[in-house]
Amino acid sequence: MGPQGASSYSLLRLQDARMDPYSGQMSVLIIDDDEAICKALGNYFEDLGFIAYQADAGLEGLDVLLECRPDAVLVDLAMPGMGGLEFLARAREIAPETPMIVVSGTGHLEDAVEASRLGAVDYITKPILDMAVVENSVKRALEHSRLKRENKDYSERLEDLVLTRTEALRQRTQALEEANAHLTEEMTHRKKTEEALRASEARFRELADLLPQTVFEIDGPGKLVFINKHGLRTLGYAQEDIERDIQAIQMVSPEDRKRIGQIFSRLLKGEVISPNEYTALRKDGSQFPAMMYSSPVLHQGRIVGSRGVLFDLTDLKRTEKALRDSQARLSAIIEVFEGFIYTCTQDYRITFTNKKLQQHLGKDCVGELCYQALYGQDSPCERCAMDQAANGETVRQEFLGPLDGRWYYSVDTPVREAGDGASCKQSIVIDITDRKTAEEALRKSEAQLREENIRLRSSIKRSGRFGSIIGKSEAMEQVYETILKAAVSTASVIIYGESGTGKELAARTIHEMSQRAQGPFIPVHCGAIPPNLIESEFFGYKKGAFTGADQDKPGFLASADKGTLFLDEVGEIPPAMQVKLLRAIAGDGYTPLGGRETLYPDIRFVAATNRDLFDLMEQGALREDFFYRIHILPIHLPPLRQRREDIPLLVRHFMEKYAGDQPVPPMPPDFLKSLQKAYWRGNVRELESAVHRFTTLRETAPQSLADSSPGSGAPKGARPASPVRLPKLLGKEEPTLKEVAAAAEREYILQLLERYKWNRSRAAEILGVDRRTLFRKIKEYGL
Ligand SMILES: Nc1ncnc2c1ncn2[C@@H]1O[C@H](COP(=O)(O)OP(=O)(O)OP(=O)(O)O)[C@@H](O)[C@H]1O
């Protein structure tokens, strides 16, 4: 009997019976040699919706089991051939999971036990009185089998799950360990990097502190985090300000702060920012122009801030302004410049002409050939300085304009244009016709002057007089030459000569021949001024400057303004006064005693001395700087004994002078001879005195005659003074007592001076007065 198709089985019933939650028809194999039972059971289960397979023997049952794989098996025990127990044993091998239910008519307990041992899940005895018993048993068996299957599946799935999860866990643990190791390595690396970064930051800041520019660092949000020492100083902050609150330091003006913010955000995006100009701000609120260069600061590939340098542009701006100003001035000068200015290229093309030249030519001539447009030539001018200009030389020359016959002075300079060397020449041309004419006139007048000079010399030769100076000896002619030179110069003059040689006379002549002749000539006898008064005498004083200063008094410097100050006996000025005088001579001015204002007089200084100034310098009595300031134009007046040929002229001159309106008295025959032989230690002054005495007293024995032997130079012992001859000297019948005393004093001083060969120190000693007092008396009495 083959498997038979089952009648429809209610799925709903199956689901109600919770036998099979999944879709699909259940099947049951019924094995029984009793056909009726087999059929009844088959029909019954087919009615239930099962597919019912039927077999009438054990062996056939095994085949169906193998082929159809029923969900449950109902098997009889006692069957011909293979019995139920053997089937169970064999079936357990083929389909161990399929539930087997025994339906037997024997009812032996041993069979039931054996069937159970062989895997039967239930044991139903025949006759089957209620098919529902079989149905329930099958359903239970199917449920059990399902549960078992499910359990097995679940166990298997669980195992798989555990295995999968365990593997996943292992992998995750391994990944975590690896990640941990990586992280640790990363952290170490980062730590090292950060340490290196900190060290390099510190080095950067140390270096930045050495730079002479403002170096700063700003973080991402735009806040100052570092500024070097120079920056602090430039912005007027102190180290404490940084320590207190570095972010309070504002480097730029409030208006520029916004701009900076925008620039930093661009910088943070990695943009390259070109340098910008800002108005930098100092702590005290003052501002200055500055240029800022910024570059991004990278940390691990990320821009975290910026670093920059701030340059103070004050000097640059000032220079730029000065340059602009000077350019403007230059343009203004070019605009009003009275000469011609033009530039041209190396192929003689005009590139620029100034207004003056344009007016002169009636057009600008730019682009035209210079030699044609300016000089009316067919080829470059012979004097053209183009080649020299190309070599970087400046050429100055005078030339006669070929078109107008006027004289010009030109300065040709190379014009260097950026990059291409001496690409063209600039010429400045000035009309010098007037100067040339004046020069010509000057040359003519010089020639006339020379002629005049010659005439003057020959007139000196004839008359033996140069201004008020008498003498025509060669030595004196040389003196006149130097006086003339001194008269046309403004340099300081120093006159050397023994006492009485005419130093003051020479100084006065210089003054009278100079351009200052209309100004005052102030002689100062420095040796006669008491040291304590010297400053007030020279500088003058203001009312109230000291006790007794009851009104302003101008000093010698004020009196000599626009004239000549003659410093006689210059070596007698004390060194302290020399310093002050030096300043005044050098143009630094002076201040009167008790005054506030510095005065700058316009004075020509002429000094004189009968002493050796080098000796005085060595002794420390004369400052070197003072000496070199006054010793510029020296004049040496020769002593009278070295120009005896001038004596007759001088005698004649003085005799006329002292005779006044009276006729010149006749001179005894030997008198002139004796005068020419005398030593004349007191020089012209002494000679003048002798002639004076002769004219008034008819005295013919000058003291110097005593030393007339040639080579004699020193007094030969003192002799008693002659009685004083007063009444005649006074020229007055009844002089006052004061006049008599003064005349006696004058006469006695003169006698002493003559006796001691004008040795004033000796005379002062005998007179019991100091040298200054004696100097004063000599001047006072005109000795
Ligand atoms: N060459 C001269 N011709 C005419 N007079 C002269 C000449 N030299 C000197 N004298 C007269 O001699 C006198 C003295 O001259 P002066 O005072 O110029 O001499 P000094 O060298 O300045 O003397 P000291 O050094 O003593 O001041 C004056 O009266 C002056 O007129």
TrEMBL record:
4-aspartylphosphate found at: D76
Domain (Sigma-54 factor interaction): residue spans on this chain: 469-696
Keyword entries, A-Z: ATP-binding, Coiled coil, Nucleotide-binding, Phosphoprotein, Transcription, Transcription regulation
Alphabetized NCBIfam families for the sequence: sensory_box
Biased composition (Polar residues): 699-711
Signal sequence segment: none
Residues in PAC domain copies: 274-325, 393-444
Coiled-coil stretches: 144-186
Domain Response regulatory intervals: 27-141
CDD domains assigned to the protein according to its UniProt record, in alphabetical order: AAA, PAS
UniProt-recorded Gene Ontology molecular function terms: ATP binding; sequence-specific DNA binding
Residue intervals of the PAS domain: 200-271
Protein name according to UniProt: PAS domain S-box-containing protein
One GO BP annotation of this record: phosphorelay signal transduction system
Ranges for region Disordered: 699-728
